[in-house]
């Protein structure tokens, strides 16, 4: 009569858990700053219980069986969580592979006198846990990609601040390269701020843009056009000599746009447009 794998593993559940925990805690790379031993035990206990509950002699060799969906669901949750917490792929790999080591060690001890069954069940368990490992890595990478995308959006948001420098005057200092997606963020932020503040002048400062090519110029012209549709006028400042030469060399027509060399000169021009006068006042000492 074939050995009942699930029966053996369920009977040895506590031994498996303790051995698995021991192997995880012995790992020098364990990040105790990211997860406590209590949390690690709870996480491991939940996964092991679901695995032992779903594992049978019939589905051992069918890793893609729907029976294992609860296991995959828990592993996916753990992978996503670890990716967001800052665990490395290696640390996540150690988690799942140390479970395999614990299962095989217990199985080997229990079937040391039944080599044929031990070989077959070891083979099945190896393939099953390897399948779980591949799924875990795929989910981990997906989780890490989500983190990177979120951080990219946050950086784009931070790098395009719209500043209200005066009544009716907004300034948007642009730092770094302008591409299509970033231009969209710049445009959306600027137009929304125009709506919120009712400002009539926007200054786009490109002092922090390393180079201007035809593509960047097109992005700027689109932003200026959209600003005008909102009833505001746009000034581009931060035109350095080398950028001016590049614009002329590329034949880019910015003649319909007010351009200034510095942010201060653009602000001075904005004051003139609004018929504002800023004077230096000297206070007399008492």
TrEMBL record:
Q: Where does the record locate the signal sequence feature?
A: none
**What Gene3D superfamilies does this protein's entry cite?**
STAS domain
Keywords attached to this Swiss-Prot or TrEMBL record, sorted alphabetically, are: Phosphoprotein
Sorted alphabetically, which Pfam families does this protein's record hold?
Answer: RsbRD_N (PF14361), STAS (PF01740)
Where does the record place a coiled coil? none
**Annotated STAS domain residues:** 159-270
Q: Which InterPro entries has this protein been placed in?
A: Bact_StressResp_Reg (IPR051932), RsbRD_N_dom (IPR025751), STAS_dom (IPR002645), STAS_dom_sf (IPR036513)
Q: What is this protein called?
A: RsbT co-antagonist protein RsbR
